[in-house]
Amino acid sequence: MKKLLSLLGAVGLVASSSSVAVACNKGNKTDTTKTDLSAMSKKDLGELHLAITNPAVDLLNSVPSISDIVNAVNAVNSNYGLNDADVEFDGTPTATKAKIKATSTTKSFTGSVELTYTALRELNLNLVEKLVNGEGIGALLPTFYVGGITVDDNTNSQKVQEAVSAYTKGFLATAKALAEQNKLTFNIDESKLIGALDIKMFSDDAGKTAWQSGDVKSITISVKSGKEKDVTSYFLSGSATVKIVKRVDINTVITGDENNKKLEISVKDDKEILSKILEALSTKYTSYKDTPKVWGLSGSYGTDASPFKYDSNSQTDGKVTLPGTPIGWFNALFTSTVVLSVKVNKIQTS
Predict the structure, then answer these.
(1) pLDDT recorded at residue 304
(2) Given this model, what pLDDT does residue 27 score?
(3) Distance CA 181, CA 56 (A)
(4) Coiled-coil segments, which residues (predicted)?
(5) Is the backbone peptide bond immediately before 323 cis, with ω within 30 degrees of 0?
(6) So what's the pLDDT on residue 94?
(7) 77: burial class by Cβ within 10 Å (0-12, 13-18, 19+)?
């Protein structure tokens, strides 16, 4: 009996050991089924067209995100099944290469791999339409007029072309200044960008009726065939429909004798002067209530660029020159200038 029990115990022990061995082997099998990134068959991802989701940031760089890399890997490596959570950058990616490595939590991948590509930020011209109309970061652009591109003579196709070029130049200058503030590089070549665009003119606001004569009321902007990659680091696509607006002589808006060219405002502090002048103008000239930037009253009182100045030896009477000329602004609606007298009432505070 003792021998039988010993034999059964031995068998049981062997069975238990076998179970452990099987369990361990099963775990080892899971590890060995992970895909080694270094064995990836296609490591040159070709061109990456990077979408602009946040214009304030994306316009200024052509460095792909981890999602861009993952999508490109899956596109050129059939059935690879890589997900954003599986990998992370190993070092800092550039516009031409990046090294990725498996994350500590991935159950599907191991190792690391260096990838090459040509990253092109995809500039869809629909963004231009949004900028001109003041949508998104367009509301922050230093433009006098929002809702169209302004031109001196909208019956002259050459003048319209020049206005589009001037708007483009103003926007690029703004973007470059923003890039420099953030220690980034912004290198869109203005002449190449303009040269890549096909501009058609229309006699209606919707861009439906081709212009032949009279007022140009809108334009469509698209990319010339074969010019999609003319601008370094960018891929041009899409189209835009933009209104064309004839500029207005400000002296046809603010008319009459000197008595009609006076404003009276009340302020607690001189810092309020420009905003209070703007309120007075919006009340008096209601046609421009929804486009207050046309007056050019941005900035703070007291700067050299301020359109308001007190008269000599006075702290209650001054003059404002309209439109103001804040540095870097473009797309003006008004031509000429007009000077208004301003009576400044000081509100006493306890």
Answers:
(1) 64
(2) 38
(3) 12
(4) none
(5) yes
(6) 92
(7) middle
**Nearest-CA neighbor of 151 among 170, 166, 129, 132?**
166
| Contact residues for 189 (Cβ-Cβ < 8 A; gap 6+) | 231, 232
Predicted local confidence at residue 327, as pLDDT: 87
Helix (H) or strand (E) holding 159: helix 157-181
Secondary structure class of 182 (helix, strand, coil): coil
Asked if 44 and 116 touch (Cβ cutoff 8 Å), the reply is: yes
User: Which residues of the chain fall short of a pLDDT of 50?
Assistant: 1-30
Task: State residue 66's pLDDT score.
Answer: 96
CA-based radius of gyration for the chain:
33
HSE-up of 82 (CA within 13 Å, CB side)?
A: 28
Angle, CA 315 vertex, CA 293 and CA 276 arms, to 5°: 25
CB 256 within 8 A of CB 159: no
Beta-carbon neighbour count of residue 132 at 10 Å? Answer: 24
Amino acid making up residue 222? S
Residue 185: the pLDDT is 72
CA dist., res. 141 & res. 92, Å (int): 31
- Global pTM reads 0.80
pLDDT score recorded for residue 18: 36
Residue with tokens 């080694």: 36
Q: What is the reported pLDDT for 316?
A: 92
According to the model, what pLDDT value does residue 302 have?
57
Q: Would you mind telling me the total number of residues written for the chain in this entry?
A: 350
CA distances from 171 to 149, 232, 248 (A): 12, 17, 22
Q: How many CB atoms lie within 10 A of CB 53?
A: 8
Please report the pLDDT score of residue 301 as a whole number: 57
Identify any residues that bridge with 36 across adjacent strands, giving them in sequence order. 110
Q: Which two tokens stand for residue 241?
A: 């429909």
